[in-house]
Amino acid sequence: MPRLPAFPALRRRVDRWAGSPRALDVVAALFAFGLMLLDVPGLARADNSLTGVTATLVLAGGAATLVLRRRLPWLPYAVALGLMGWLHELTMIQFALYSIGRYRGRRAAVLATLLYVAVAYGYFLTPGWPAEHGETVSDFLSLVVPIGVLAAGVGIAAYRQDLVRALEVQRREAAARQAVQEERISVGRDVHDLVGRELTVLAVRAEVLAVRAGGEAHQKDFEELADTARRAHLMLNETIVRRADRDAATPGLEGLAELAGETERMGSPVALTVAEEAKALSPLRQTAVHRVVRECLTNAAKHAPGLPVTVAITVEGTGLRIEVRNPLPKSPPDPAPVSTGTGLFSMEERVTSMGGTLRARREDGAYVVTATLPTGLAS
Q1: How many CA atoms lie within 13 A of 308 on its CB side?
Q2: Which of 106, 314, 344, 355 is most buried (most C-beta within 10 Å)?
Q3: Which helix (H) or strand (E) holds 44?
């Protein structure tokens, strides 16, 4: 019996799709539809305009909007409010509120929950509200409010975890890039030390031989050899220094605004102040400032989510001062953020290697990181 042909490319594509966010959205839509199917017999009896088939189609159309919950989370939310008023269906609103909390954050979820409770109360006051969804106001509130608050709260918690994971990925990628950069600079310095020494010896030996030749036919050749060795040594010096400067110059102070914007999108407002004199710093020092600020903002987003952060970079004489301050949360995040605990040490190592100091402390209900560096500028 002939075997059916294999389709490895199709299988790989299916595997990739199965692990994609779109597949999770489809699963969520199917799950919501499956739960709402349990209500179809009751819906058909309660609304004479619907049959079992038409009620199923209506619920399928509503659940299908959950496929767009990442890009358009307000669409399934609006559909859920409509289904709640028409068919008194409360399942869809739970998925919609979770999606808003998960993909739009705390503020949007709180607003959506309050609006949901207000609209549901309006439905409750109109004739026809089913008794199983609350005959009295207390019954109504004990059913409707927990549904919305719980769904939105779970979504917000998932949103926070997504941010923490994204920060960890960004931090690991930055650490990997930094390690590669440092290794390249280290290799370059080794090449400079070893090859540069040999080129210097070659130039000196060629000059000695040129002097010894003293007017002979090969004197000019020895002089040209010495000049070639000196030029090669100079080129090697310039290449190593230029490569180190280019690597160290990215990113610098110009990237701080982007860092602040990323942190604000995570829910933590950032007040950024950069002294005009700081823009004259060398690329190497600007990179140090960028890395210290980035690490502080990452820690603030993980350990004090949603709280404002103040970043001030000032120049005082020949010293540069970096201060990052954020209020301490009333209670630690739950669950505890993922952290390797090496961020503070890496910041301190970078600052002290440039002749500076770094101090992290609790002060007046806030967590403050202060770093000082020599500017390297003439006073």
Answers
A1: 4
A2: 106
A3: helix 40-46
Q: List per-block mean pLDDT (blocks of 10 residues) for the chain, which spans 379 residues.
A: 54 67 83 81 62 82 88 90 82 89 87 87 76 66 80 83 81 73 60 61 70 72 74 64 50 86 84 90 81 85 85 90 90 51 66 83 90 78
Supply the DSSP string of 206-219, one letter for each residue.
Answer: HHHHHHHHTTSTTH
**Predicted local distance difference test score (pLDDT) of residue 249:** 44
SS3 326: strand
Would you say 293 and 324 are in contact if contact means Cβ atoms under 8 Å apart? Answer: yes
Q: Which amino acid is at 75?
A: L
Using CB atoms within 10 Å of the CB of residue 38, give its burial: 0 to 12 exposed, 13 to 18 middle, 19+ buried. exposed
Rounded Cα distance between 277 and 39, Å, is 68
* Sign of the dihedral through C-alpha 175, 181, 184, 186: negative
Contacts 24+ apart (CB under 8 A), 192-200: 192/236, 192/237, 192/240, 195/236, 196/233, 196/236, 196/237, 199/229, 199/230, 199/232, 199/233, 199/236, 200/229, 200/233
Contact, 236 vs 273, CB < 8 A? no
Helix H or strand E encompassing 371: strand 366-374
Token duo for residue 95? 């998925």
Asked if residue 369 lies in contact with residue 323, where contact means CB atoms within 8 angstroms, the answer is yes
Task: List pLDDT tens digits, range 63-76.
Answer: 899 888 888 989 99
Residue 329 structure tokens: 């949360």
306: left (phi over 0), alpha (psi -120 to 50) or beta: left
Cβ contact 278:315 at 8 Å: yes
